[in-house]
Amino acid sequence: LHPGAITFGRVGLGAATLAVLPRSRMRLRSADRSLMVVVSLVWVGIPFTLFPFAQQYINSAITGMLNGGVPIFAAVIAIFMLRRLPRFVTIAGLIIGFGGVVAISAPSVGEGGTEALGVALVVIATACYGLAINIAAPIQQRYGSIVVMARMLALATLWTAPFGLIGGAGSTFAWSSFLAVAIAGVLGTGVAFVLMGTLVGSVGSTRASVLTYLIPVVALILGVVFRGDVVPPIAVAGAAMVIAGAVLASRRDTSAS
Questions:
Q1: How far is CA 110 from its chain centroid?
Q2: pLDDT digits (tens, 9 = 90+) for 26-47
Q3: Which residues contact 173 (CB under 8 A, 6 or more apart)?
Q4: Per-residue pLDDT tens for 117-153?
Q5: In Å, how far are 36, 116, 150, 236 from 40, measured between CA atoms?
Q6: Spatial separation of the C-alpha atoms in residues 50 and 120, rounded to whole Å
Q7: E strand or H helix at 41, and its extent?
């Protein structure tokens, strides 16, 4: 399948899963509807489009390890949004975390060309996640996770539709691909986003993003074992730095009320 078709199918199925729930139809205030447009773009529309294209240039292990930097970006953005000076431990965590991102990226960037482009796309997508969960936290606290995530995925379906329709025209149907996209859409997008949104509203954006600590580890294991990905030692060390930095940066959630 074309990357655009995969993204559109995944987002659309996630939206359809939540649309059947009665609570998803609650009306939002006008100001919050505008924010939901922004959230749908930076949490789903942009990153979900960038990741499949990036993985044409870099392997899944590197992609997953870079995605572990979400808490770092979330912490930095929370600091600027709340205009509060961070504690020393937070600053130390951010420095270590960004150093880890650089270490993970270095081998691919050093190759130049398409690999450097792949890294850049993933970093942009990860930064979008960090921004999105900071914007979504107060909205989720007002309406609940199901309402926010259903509206966000419905809007994101519109943003990803052009790539999906174009990509679908050049793709052929296969049951294995369909089942993979269906599972990713219903469980990995619809259900997972509700759970993540609930956590963001309960504990705040920075602390909620610590779930991404698991992403570098899982991505590394699955990529190496099942896909034969080759990961340089410096990238593995960088993943450890990202996790350590994220732990330090999220010890105190600056976005919680």
A1: 25
A2: 888 888 888 999 999 999 999 9
A3: none
A4: 999 999 999 999 989 988 988 888 888 888 888 899 9
A5: 6, 27, 10, 32
A6: 10
A7: none
